[in-house]
Specification:
heterodimer, A: alpha+beta, four-stranded mixed beta sheet, 15 strands, extended, B: about 170 residues, about 0% strand, globular, disordered N terminus
């Protein structure tokens, strides 16, 4: 035996595990990229909010709690509603969390975050901009979510990972999903604050455009957003929200003509 | 390169057997353990696969793969006890096993750059310009790392140095 003796290698015996390990590494890389972007954006938003409210007080915003949370801090500053994103509304305009009540008096401030909405509090309506489209024409799909309960709750934005779903699915007449926008396409949305829905408030949860191409192979939340399959055939299709929690919704039915 | 359906880049498929053999052979020469060599080669190829869009087009693609294999092998050597512990070998095998153990210990004492340069030059047989390209440094700098690394290894390995490095 010498230093340079080598066994007879069998690369093919290891090809499958190399492939599996590569897929695992690829998913981890994507996760790290999204997390880094989210952290950067969160820090940016935090600095922005801090700068806007830097009047000597401190405000703590608690988001993401599954149940109502109360945080007391002092001293205080007045909440500036313009520092939060807003959405269209019906009866009562929704705001983004936290749903804060605050005073400019010297006393403590109470910040209340409503619980996450549950499926039985919500209903949805899906609409398309047209009832029929020529082949290749862009389909615009909007999802409006309505809180029909008597309780204020908050709903996650689409694309926000396991809390938000992927906004909308397009299915063919057999119910097969032919298109779903990958969640990681809109990683920025993952760090947007949830939207607070007061009783009877409605909120345009998502507006998506679809170029009539199928998902590349399977419709995945984590697919490559630039990858596309072939165009769908002419026929009847339905669009439905894909939200967590699931939202009972009226689907939008539309035609693609040849 | 890696789709959700596990699709594989065609050129990676084609190059995979040769790259695997080279990576496994390098690690085996360093550590002397077939199973570990295959594990490290598999991990190396998986890492190359994930980055194949970039790595596949590099002029020093093979060197990139071997460099990753070298560093993974050193990581493995750091984590595990010496392979000679509790094992009985015939005399000629013992010499090689001890030589490998000494070589890995000596390689670990080098700086990362020196180690990578020496391994790529002498354990994989790459010419100096390829070593320089793989490490992203000038040929002169690569030569310097190799020279200093060899000098250090010569001092640590003594007479065994010639058996490994000729």
């Amino acid at each position: 035996m010498t230093f340079n003796d080598e066994p007879d290698w069998r690369p093919e015996d290891h090809r499958e595990r190399v492939r599996r390990r590569a897929l695992q590494l690829a998913h981890r890389r994507r996760g790290r990229t999204v997390a880094a972007a989210a952290t950067t954006l969160a820090v940016g938003i935090g600095l922005f909010v801090w700068a806007r409210n830097d009047t000597g007080g401190t405000r703590i915003a608690v988001v993401g709690s599954p149940s109502a949370t109360t945080t007391t801090v002092q001293p205080t500053s007045t909440v500036d509603p313009s520092s939060f994103t807003t959405a269209t509304s019906a009866a009562t305009p929704p705001t983004s969390a936290p749903d804060s009540t605050a005073t400019s008096a010297a006393g403590p401030t109470t910040t209340t975050v409503p619980p996450d909405c549950t499926s039985d509090q919500l209903d949805g309506t899906t609409t398309t901009d047209k009832p029929a489209y020529a082949t290749g024409e862009t389909v615009t799909i909007a999802v409006v979510i309505h809180n029909h309960s008597g309780t204020t709750c908050q709903i996650r934005n689409p694309y926000s990972g396991r809390f938000g779903g992927s906004a909308v699915d397009v299915t063919d007449t057999t119910g097969n999903v032919v298109w779903r926008r990958p969640t990681n396409e809109a990683g920025v949305a993952a760090v947007l604050p949830p939207t607070v829905l007061a009783p009877d408030a409605s909120y345009t949860w998502s507006t998506d455009t679809w170029d009539q191409h199928r998902c590349p192979s399977t419709c995945s939340y984590y697919g490559d957003p630039t990858a596309e399959g072939p165009s769908v055939a002419a026929g009847t299709y339905q669009a439905l929200p894909n939200a967590q929690p699931p939202v009972p919704a009226t689907p939008a039915t539309f035609q693609i003509t040849g | 390169v890696v789709g959700d359906d596990g699709s594989v880049a065609a050129d990676f498929e084609q190059l995979y057997p040769e790259l695997f053999r080279r990576a496994a052979g390098l690690v085996y020469r360093m550590l002397g353990d077939r199973t570990v060599a295959e594990d490290v080669a598999a991990e190396t190829l998986a890492r190359a696969y994930v980055r194949w869009k970039r790595v596949g087009s590099l002029p020093y693609r093979d060197a990139w793969v071997l460099r990753v294999a070298t560093n993974l092998a050193i990581d493995v050597a750091r984590r595990r006890p010496p392979s000679t512990a509790g094992q009985v070998y015939s005399e000629d095998v013992t010499d090689v096993v001890l030589l490998r153990a000494a070589l890995v210990a000596a390689l670990q004492s080098l700086s990362r750059r020196q180690r990578e340069a020496v391994v790529l030059r002498y354990l994989t047989g790459l010419p100096e310009p390829d070593v320089a390209a793989a490490l992203g440094i000038s040929v002169g700098a690569a030569h310097s790392h190799i020279h200093r690394g060899l000098a250090s290894l010569r001092g640590q390995l003594g007479p065994s140095f010639r058996e490994v490095f000729g």
